[in-house]
Amino acid sequence: MTFLxxxxxxxxVINGGADAAVICYECHANSTEQGKYCSIDKLCEGxxxxxxxxxxxxxxxxxxxxxxxxxxxxxSSSSSSSSTVSSSCSCNSDFCNSLAxxxxxxVTRSGGRGNGWWGGGxxxxxxxxxxxxxxxDRNFVHCEECGSVTVGSQTIQIPCDHNHxxxxxxxxxxxxxxxxxxxxxxxxxxxxxxxxxxxNALESCLCSMNMCNxxxxxxxxxxxxxxxxxxxxxxxxxxxxxxxxxxPAIVIPEPTTVKPTTKRKCKNAKLSPNDQxxxxxxxxxxxxxxxxxxxxxxxxxxxxxxxxxxxNYSEDE
Length: 317
Prior knowledge:
This protein is α+β, with helices and mostly antiparallel strands. It has helices at 2-19, 99-109, 224-228, 232-239, 275-292, 297-312, and strands at 22-25, 27-31, 34-36, 43-46, 48-54, 59-64, 74-77, 85-91, 125-128, 131-134, 141-144, 146-151, 154-158, 165-168, 170-175, 180-184, 194-197, 203-207. A six-stranded antiparallel β-sheet has the order 3-2-6-5-8-7, covered by helices on one side. A six-stranded antiparallel β-sheet has the order 13-12-16-15-18-17, with no helix packed on it. Strands 1-4 form a two-stranded antiparallel sheet. Strand 5 and strand 6 (59-64) form a beta hairpin. The longest helix is centred in the N-terminal third of the chain and has 18 residues, at 2-19. Residues 4-18, 114-128, 224-228 and 256-264 have low confidence and may be disordered.
């Protein structure tokens, strides 16, 4: 009985260790002009994390299938004179192979003194003791690095405080159902400061001042009315006057039933009457106004624009 219990305990420990996974930064540098910047929008899930510095000062970081015994990132020098690798580092806790922590561990291993911040000025390479890391040839700013990130089967909420910051060429704040903020690098994308939408309708705001990327509020959720309307996808391009819009699978009423009930003074010049565009504009207006209400400034701007659109395509009364 005692022997069986020991076997079960050992089996449980082995399985528990096999199932454990940590979240690591996944990034690299080939040169000052080419690389993949380390940030919480580029993560992987593995048995442990690694950081490798090569003799030409290029480096890489990511996930490893080899179990590390170090909770904090710890480095060792390459024992082979013919190897292209200068130092190898490993650790087994979430986010332990960040660029700042790995550089500090490399400096400590070489007998120098670590520095919590690296960068801070324009330069091709950052040096401390005899450690040289290849970085972008651009100025660096301090940024927030926090919010909700999901990697594989794990979702982690990173608090926004002085322990969760980073340095990059610019700062980024992403608005979505799970907002997060991070450091951006010119290796990945270089855009003017401002807010942009990607193909998934996520809003990313870029800024170039220290700590300018405060965590954004979650994006509003579409109401049931807006989401369940089967014609919404075809209404938008028609209402906005796009060329060759899709034909909605709905019956278009007679012109007499879709004319505006009140005469409007159009902002722009009158266009050729288009009953379909007027009907679609009215339909889209009802969906948006019903879903979001009219108190929001952005919705009010939309209402003004859609009213102008309806007026432009209406017949004169």
